Amino acid sequence: MKRLFLAAATAAVLLLPACVQQQMQQIAYNSKVVVLDIGHYYEPTRGGQGARTPDARYGVIEETDFWYRYAGEVKKTVEAAGYTCRICNRGDVPTNRKLAAAAEKAGVHHVKSPEPTAIYRSTHHPKRVAVGMLSTNYALDQQPGAVVFLHHNSNSEKWRVYNKGAFYCNKVGVRLAQTMAQVMNRDIIDTPDGGMPNHGVPCGVVLRDNGRLGGGDWLNACNESYVPAVITEVAFLSNPEHAKYLSKHQNAVKFAQAIGRGIVEFLNQR
Length: 270
Ligand SMILES: [Zn+2]
Known about the structure:
This protein is 43% helix and 16% strand. By secondary structure, the protein is α/β, with parallel strands linked by helices. It has a single domain (33-162, 170-268), classed as Aminopeptidase. The chain is globular. The structure holds zinc ion.
């Protein structure tokens, strides 16, 4: 009898995680919610804290500022396809009035991290820690089908043509990243109708499962909830050709819409 009980207890212990795992997978798979995170925050006196163009020669762009202005275009594209889209930011409402208005229009949820540069623990997967984790906590609270961290890249203090942009993703997000890259390469990169010049180099996909690298544990925490997640690092603000392209309003809208279409095409093909 005791042995039988032990066998049953062991089975229960073994079955429970598999069951919970399956349930979590189903929630993510069936979810129609997309969460976008405006990757950096707005500091009241110093402004946006993301990458920026080296000087004003080819346009003035700062990552945080850019995504406050254009995350709403990604959202519109996602919602037009029948999904729900929520945008968050780790900081507080920008003190810049135009950005605050853009945030309100796009319905940005401000997580208001007490200290936006401090390291926080994932409430869903406590061994995961990172700066910006409070955004990931908010994202996973929404039980999403995809999470996209909106960024641009920069790899030089000076202007330099550099073309190896990529979508960084978690393990369960490889197909999301591949689809987003396909759409970006098809609709934006080097397109003959005046797309973003990139000298024939397509944007790639990089699996990031190392928590020590930028954003690694945002992706890992999402992975442990079976949620496909991607960090967009397609454009380089230190690349004069990318800066020139993205500083035109119409191009920025097109770029944001292509991010949205990539998400939609992935969700539609699940
Ligand atoms: Zn960034």
